[in-house]
Amino acid sequence: MSKTIAVIDYGMGNLRSVSKAIEHVSAPGDRVLVTDDPELILNADRVVFPGQGAARDCMAAISDHNLNRAVLDAAHSKPFLGICMGLQVLMEFSDENGGTDLLGLFPGKVHHFPDVRDEHGQRMKVPHMGWNRVAQAQSHPLWDGIADNSRFYFVHSYYIEPDDKALVAGITDYATRFTSVIARDNLFATQFHPEKSADAGLRLLRNFVNWDV
Question: Is the previous residue joined to 127 through a cis bond, with omega within 30 degrees of 0?
Answer without folding.
Answer: yes
